[in-house]
Amino acid sequence: MLFGILGETRAWGDDGAEVPLGGPARRALLALLLAHPGEAVSADRLADAVGPDGRLSAHALQSQVSRLRKALGPGAAIEQAGAGYRIVVVQEDVDACRFERLAREGRAALRAGDPGRAVTLLREALGLWRGPALAGLAESEGARPAAVRLEERRLGALEDRIEAECLLGGHGGAVPELRELVGRHPLRERLAGLLIRALFAEGGPAAALMAYEETRRHLADELGTDPSPELMALHRELLSADPAPAPTAPPAQLTAFVGRAGEVAEVAALLRVARLVTLTGPGGVGKTRLSVEVAGAAGTGAGVGVGVGVGELCFAELAPLREGAGLPQALLSALGLRTTGLGMGDSGQAPVDRLIAALADRTVLLVLDNCEHVVDEIAALAARLLAACPRLRVLATSREPLGIIGESLWPVRPLDGDAAVRLFTERAGAVRPGFTAAPEVVRRICAALDDLPLAIELAAARIRTLDVGELAGRLDDRLGVAARGSRGSDERHRTLRSVVAWSWELLSEPEQRAARRFAVFAGGATAESAMRVCDTDGGTLEALVDKSLLEFAGGRYRMLETIGAYAGERLDAAGERPAVRRAHARRFLELARTADPHLRRAEQLEWLPRLTAEHGNLLAALRWTVESPDVRTGLELLAAASHYLWIRGISASVAPQAITLLDAMGPVRGEAVAGAGGGGTGETAPPWAGLGEEYVLCVLLAASDAAGRPVWQRHRAAAERALAAAWSGARPGRHPVGLFLWMMRNAGEADAQSAFALVSAQRDCPEPWARAAARYVSGFGPLGEGDAALADETFGAAARGFRELGDRWGTALALDTLAGLAAGRGDLVRAVALTDEALALTEQLGALEDSADLLVNRADHRVGGNPAAARADYAQAAALARRAGSPTALAAALRGLADMALLDGDPDGAERLYEEALERADPHWVKSVGTRVRTLAGLGRIAEARGERAAARSRFREAAEAAEGTGADTPEALRLLGLPADVAARVVEAVSGR
Q1: Which pTM was predicted?
Q2: What is the rounded CA–CA span in Å between residue 875 and residue 898?
Q3: Is residue 279 helix, strand or coil?
Q4: What's the 3-state SS for 642-703?
Q5: Can you tell me the distance from the alpha carbon of 439 to that of 816, in angstroms, rounded to the nearest whole number?
């Protein structure tokens, strides 16, 4: 006989038929006995289970036992045992016992490294469950412990089964089940760990990190505790697996490369002896595709033995660039570099200098694709980079040479006849399986297209709807007309234009309308954006992909450059450009507005990549607002994107547009821009009235570039009034990041106190991010007055506020400041722990410069107790700073290495490093103050050790003067900047003896 208590209590005879047990009292009695097969169960417990609303008498219980014996017959024996009863059955006949055995064996198989067997056993075990354990009895005092034990083992078996399935590659299928289980058991850390690992394996670290953050918050809110060491170790593992931004790789190709294998080998060989090679030729001849193949061969030497020893490869697509001024920023982005540090403002270094710093010691092949529209700027920048970076090689594609010394040209010709026929045949076969045609007909088509690869591919795509004879007839006629066009145009350009025009005219009117409107996008578009801006549907977009007018990859539609140029002409001819660009700007304003609040919360890891993918479109929309001009939309767009630009460290990329918008506004009164009317003077309200915060953020973004300094001085007073008006009432403003950035921008000004008062007044603001930012800023008040305890409490409140929101940006900033306070009071263990936590956050954000800065701070905390670890941190910081192209971060790292050299008794080596640090540190940027002070003090110590007292005093005085920029008195400033007490005393002595 078989028994089941994993669900409703049931029994089955040897023939498989269910045994009628009678009413609920007998089922309850049997269930409790089967929960402990072979063990005595007291009469009191049985009576409680059988009659929970009123204790059964001994006689009544005996009567129920007798009836149960009769129902079971010889299949099971119920014996009296002392003051109770026991059931005598084979344990394997009870589903709960069988489940526990299978679950134990499954777990053992999992631990022994046999997930396949574990899955089989655990699925069999879990398949025995028909419902809750001891259904109907779980609330009884006698049955509850057994029910709880069985349910816990069921959950453990579920965890074991999911872990085994994941080991077999079933991560994707496990995610929905794990999400449901974690939702029901949010405090169960093993389930959370399984979900985190499955999410990471399925889609990368962002979703996994969000799952960890949710679990951490649940544990903190419900239990007041941190995650277990195992879950924290998993978190660290995820962070280490999340790489910093890498240089942009060449685009992956979807089709075979036809006809140029020899050229790949020859160009790659040329790159071994020439540091600048330019592929020249008309549009559509295949320069980009050849550069992609050469870059791959040069980087790997795959198959042809042509490697040139490049250590890294970076592909910079310059077609979206509209003006040469943005070229250095475009290259920084292609290299995966930020232009500013986390929350610390702009370094004041020109983008070109950052490029040189990033590339100076690296072996890199830089591919510059589509240079012709900014050829002068490319030529000047390439010449400077090649002169300053001896390990750099450049492969450029352009319709004309760059024209600089050392350039080697490689003209890219049309395909030879056989290769052209093969290309057409392959591409036609892709759209019409089984395609065949007479080689001479195909050859005639290709010859009519001048054997240009792009033209051939466009023509071959038409084979889907035309036969080869029709195609030949139409193409010959169209190209004949175009060949008799303007003699001032390049012959191949006219031919390619004819091919594009012919392909265009084969489109339906809705397809033409969508294609010409798509020309306003920069860097492609998602399906939603394309449908909204082009006023089209998904079917039309798919048709354009089928007809090779659009490409679709990575969830985005893209248009080839040559086709985009022709589509732009058609857009102008239709008179639609102003309306479509307006729709484009409104679409990306909407996207930026939607993303903005998420960037201040845990979802920032999800939204940052989405905005990064649309960076070109955001800039294109902003350019339209400047060109129109539409000042109101421009201000709204800059404000909505400001937090993204700041976190990414690329605020300087929009400074020229911000400056132009401010110039278009003319003189501004803060009360006029903040209010809705003309300020009570009878004047007509300006178009931007009511956009006070947006105006403030425009001023801040304009000031993020050195060219914006005069603009900042002109608008600072009006902007302060506008910001004060926006944040003075009971309702918070719309853009809390403006408060924080206002303080950061004003920190270096002589009269920063008003900014401090304005921002710190929001300490109790109902908007949580503004409240946390205000508390962070407020902490510098007591810090400057020497009240370290109150400062620590205030910065701690700020850190908690940022952490509760899930904002890594603010949290890292506050943790770094708390670490400095801990070090100041001698608690170096806590200082290192806080810095480690901040480092983990900057690594998630891909902030190389800030990670370098934090490594220097950690080394400063370690240098007294663990010099070897400190030296390693300084060296790693220097490497990261060079990779980020950050002279300021590199100066800090060099200062630390100089300190170590001095500690090791190498004053000459220390002096060289100090001098290099001093050369790289920007004397006008607040972030460099500590580096300058400690570097100058180090040089003073070296001079003092050599007996050069006058030189030593001079260096110490310079250090004191630099420290005065903090606003605190000299001794306190030196202490806050981390100067050792004995060195600080010498600096103070030098100042007092002036």
Answers
A1: 0.65
A2: 11
A3: strand
A4: HHHHHHHCCHHHHHHHHHHHHHHHCCCCHHHHHCCCCCCCCCCCCCCCCCHHHHHHHHHHHC
A5: 70
Residue 270's region, left for phi above 0, alpha for psi from -120 to 50, else beta, is alpha
Residue 603 burial (CB count, 10 A): 16
Which backbone phi and psi does 279 adopt, to 5 degrees? -85, 115
- Residue 955 tokens, joined: 């260096």
**Do residues 66 and 16 make contact, with C-beta atoms less than 8 angstroms apart?**
no
Instruction: Give the amino acid at 321.
Output: L
Q: Amino acid identity, residue 226? A: D
Helix (H) or strand (E) holding 198: helix 189-203
* DSSP code, position 285: S
Question: Nearest Cα to 818, choosing from 855, 771, 783, 844?
Answer: 783
Torsion angle defined by CA atoms of residues 38, 43, 46 and 51, in that order, rounded to the nearest 10 degrees: 160
With a cut of 50, say whether residue 814 has pLDDT above it. yes
Q: Which two tokens stand for residue 169?
A: 């590659």
CA angle, corner 851, sides to 850 and 855, nearest 5? Answer: 115
| Among the listed residues 763, 766, 767, 790, the one whose alpha carbon sits nearest the alpha carbon of residue 777 | 763
Q: What end-to-end distance do the CA atoms of the chain give, in Å?
A: 103
What six digits make up the tokens of 547?
A: 């007809």
Element (H, E) at 29: helix 24-34
DSSP strand pairing (364-369 vs 556-558): unpaired
Sign of CA dihedral 357, 363, 367, 373: positive
User: Distance of alpha carbon 269 from its chain centroid, rounded?
Assistant: 37
Distances (CA, A) of 930 to 179, 890, 978: 48, 13, 8
pLDDT tens sequence across 449-485 = 778 888 888 788 878 777 888 778 776 544 332 333 3
**Which DSSP letter does residue 18 get?**
B
Q: What is the pLDDT of residues 318-343, one digit of tens each?
A: 888 878 888 888 888 888 775 544 33
- SS3 assignment, position 593: helix
Residue among 94, 82, 75 at smallest CA distance from 33: 94
Distance CA 919, CA 916 (A): 5
Burial class (CB in 10 A: 0-12, 13-18, 19+), 992: exposed
Coil, helix or strand for 852? helix
Closest by CA position to 622, among listed 648, 594, 595, 651: 651
Measured at the alpha carbon of residue 716, what is the angle toward residues 710 and 719, in degrees to the nearest 5?
A: 135
Reference 393, options 366, 427, 358; nearest CA is: 366
Q: How many CB atoms lie within 10 A of CB 954?
A: 16
